[in-house]
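2024-03-11 09:14:02 INFO worker-7 job=invfold-0412 stage=load source=structure_tokens
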């Protein structure tokens, strides 16, 4: 039987957002548009964060640790009282699905922008939730969700269901206490392991068992209910591309969805919400099998991270819907008034290193921008929901998601093309991100063909993480950008004072080396490019491995450039990150470390006066003293990056004038490590 939400039906003029990062900024954007005053809360680590800067008021909660700040119910409630906030929006994560928090707000007379505590509790216990869903006629994966947790009984139920089966912690989430059991003899060990994980994470050892679908898609339905008994579904999203049960790319509508299947899933989702007396925005998650059968997985009793793709295809602001429902208003639209227009994708930008098993990254964002004009993109088709700006620091204390890139197109192909162009236009420096990995996903043939299931990344790992193979055109493009940079640096100098090989009435020749930034010390990976031109107005003649190309560079809007090689012109986004040239187009990203190596002045080798960090890392040791005479090739300092040590060597005979860092310091890619004086 459905429960009734004891809503206050009271309008409010001040909204406190009990969250941080991009979702806090996104909620406040709509609140301000509705004329509401906004209040932010923050930890010591977020004292100058973007969501704090954008709010009308902000209240400190406590130290950096979430349990001492964003998860402190009493501190959040006190912040609302102190600022006169009549309502609190929880965002997602933190306290968004905490029934005790909702009860505390009810007791304090503060409106919770979300469902009643009873609905959160109903969906918080997976076993009980599945029983309620069965009662509402929502399809369930064949399985066991009972209270009897005897080992022998659980094994018998697994045998009855048929292998493979999925063991899941009843109180779990986020992939903890979850294992696939392929055969009967593996069951007991898997059960013991899941129970240990569940006890450690949730203080609960109860398990449920489900039939494991080998190639399911993760398709979820956005539902919305009000306190007047109305309920609608705002269609579905496909969230199948995941890593470690965490979504990476989402899209709406789901590819291959028929009108009949959409209606069946949507109506089942609304029944699920009404069964528990739901009010507000919620998401019912289903597993969709190859035969179009679908099964209830769980319900998220909050706004989802991927809600923008639904907003893009429906033209509705879901946060505005949330706030109006929380004020006691009826839903803005009925089911028959909702329609789908076009297609939308969302890509989650994380501060993490996909090449190092998605290890979270920290640091200062020296640049965070998206050059829409340079990429030729329509701002109405591209949305960047971000919680950071240039200059912000990414800390170790919270989720590494920096932003969400959302795009819209008339159909899936057009939206995917826009996504790739937008990813190419996204420029993030100072912190390692998964931007290039997102582009590899979005350009993967299987993704383009919508060959989707929840193991997409694992199945395509070999191609998604294949070593980069550089083409002659990529080497030439990087060389051209490096050569033009050198030429600009020399333009204001008198030719009589130059030491760069320039001679009046003679061609200007420069030689540079190019290599993968991760293999700067590996001589075998270096490719040498010789660039020659008569004057600054002439094109370069680039010689690479015996092949000569006529090359010209043209700067366009923003970070966009045009590279022309033997008459073939390509438009791309290009920038320099220290000594690394980064070139991005809708097909992917190329990063190449370049260094000048040309011989000048009767055979003397030109030595660089500085050495720069080839990548982000940590200084391990300084091997020489300043002023100490060294010979070419002698080790000067050691830095560690990507779990490997890299030794920086003397480029020529001479001495180190000064080191810019000490052992233990963190350095960014392109940072000047030391000043070097070559011997005369």
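2024-03-11 09:14:09 INFO worker-7 stage=emit residues=680
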């Amino acid at each position: 039987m459905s429960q009734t939400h004891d809503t206050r039906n009271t309008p409010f003029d001040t909204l406190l957002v009990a969250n941080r990062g991009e979702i806090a900024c996104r909620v406040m954007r709509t609140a301000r548009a509705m004329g509401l005053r906004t209040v932010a809360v923050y930890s010591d680590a977020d004292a100058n964060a973007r969501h704090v800067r954008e709010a009308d008021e902000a209240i400190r909660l406590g130290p950096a640790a979430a349990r001492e700040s964003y998860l402190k119910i009493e501190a959040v409630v006190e912040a609302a009282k102190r600022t006169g906030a009549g309502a609190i929006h929880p965002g997602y994560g933190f306290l968004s699905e905490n029934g005790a928090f909702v009860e505390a707000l009810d007791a304090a007379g503060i409106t919770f922008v979300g469902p009643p505590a009873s609905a959160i509790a109903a969906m918080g216990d997976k076993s009980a939730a599945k029983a309620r869903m069965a009662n509402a006629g929502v399809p369930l994966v064949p399985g066991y969700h009972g209270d009897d947790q005897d080992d022998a009984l659980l094994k018998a139920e697994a045998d009855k269901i048929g292998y493979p089966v999925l063991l899941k912690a009843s109180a779990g989430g986020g992939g903890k206490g979850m294992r696939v059991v392929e055969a009967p003899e593996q069951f007991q060990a898997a059960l013991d392991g899941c129970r240990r994980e569940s006890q450690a994470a949730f203080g609960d050892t109860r398990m449920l068992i489900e039939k494991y679908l080998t190639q399911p898609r993760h398709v979820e339905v956005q539902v919305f209910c009000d306190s007047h008994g109305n309920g609608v579904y705002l269609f579905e999203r496909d969230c199948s591309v995941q890593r470690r049960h965490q979504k990476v790319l989402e899209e709406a509508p789901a590819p291959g969805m028929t009108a009949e299947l959409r209606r069946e899933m949507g109506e089942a989702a609304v029944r699920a919400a009404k069964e528990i007396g739901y009010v507000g925005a919620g998401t019912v998650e289903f597993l969709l099998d190859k035969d179009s059968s679908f099964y209830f997985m769980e319900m998220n009793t909050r706004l989802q991270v991927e809600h923008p793709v639904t907003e893009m295809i429906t033209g509705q602001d879901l946060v505005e819907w949330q706030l109006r429902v929380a004020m006691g208003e009826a839903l803005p639209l009925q089911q028959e008034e909702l329609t789908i227009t076009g297609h939308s994708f969302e890509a989650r930008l994380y501060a993490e290193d996909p090449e190092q098993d998605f290890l979270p990254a920290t640091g200062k964002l020296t640049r965070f921008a998206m050059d829409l004009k340079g990429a030729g993109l329509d701002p109405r088709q591209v949305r960047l929901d971000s919680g950071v700006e240039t200059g912000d620091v990414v800390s170790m204390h919270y989720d590494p998601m920096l932003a969400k890139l959302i795009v819209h197109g008339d159909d899936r192909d057009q939206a995917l093309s826009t996504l790739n162009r937008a990813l190419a236009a996204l420029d993030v420096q100072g912190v390692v991100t998964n931007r290039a990995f997102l582009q590899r996903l979005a350009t993967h043939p299987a993704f383009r063909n919508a060959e989707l299931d929840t193991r997409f990344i694992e199945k395509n790992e070999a191609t998604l993480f294949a070593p980069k193979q550089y083409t002659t055109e990529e080497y030439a493009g990087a060389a051209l950008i490096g050569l033009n940079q050198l030429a600009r640096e020399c333009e204001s100098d008198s030719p009589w004072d130059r030491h760069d090989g320039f001679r009046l009435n003679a061609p200007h020749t420069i030689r540079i080396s190019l290599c993968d930034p991760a293999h700067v010390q590996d001589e075998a990976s270096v490719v040498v490019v010789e660039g020659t031109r008569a004057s600054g107005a002439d094109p370069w003649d680039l010689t690479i491995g015996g092949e000569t190309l006529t090359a010209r560079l043209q700067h366009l809007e923003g970070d966009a450039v045009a590279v022309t090689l033997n008459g073939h012109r390509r438009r791309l986004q290009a920038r320099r990150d220290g000594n690394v040239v980064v070139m991005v187009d809708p097909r992917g990203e190329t990063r190449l470390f370049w260094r000048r190596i040309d011989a000048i002045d009767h055979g003397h080798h030109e030595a660089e006066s500085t050495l720069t960090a080839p990548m982000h890392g940590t200084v391990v040791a300084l091997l020489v003293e300043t002023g100490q005479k060294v010979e070419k090739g002698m080790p000067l300092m050691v830095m560690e990056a990507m779990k490997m040590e890299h030794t920086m060597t003397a480029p020529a005979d001479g001495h180190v004038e000064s080191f810019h860092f000490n052992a233990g310091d963190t350095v960014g890619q392109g940072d000047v490590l030391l000043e070097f004086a070559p011997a005369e």
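2024-03-11 09:14:09 INFO worker-7 stage=report msg="The radius of gyration is 29 Å."
2024-03-11 09:14:10 INFO worker-7 job finished
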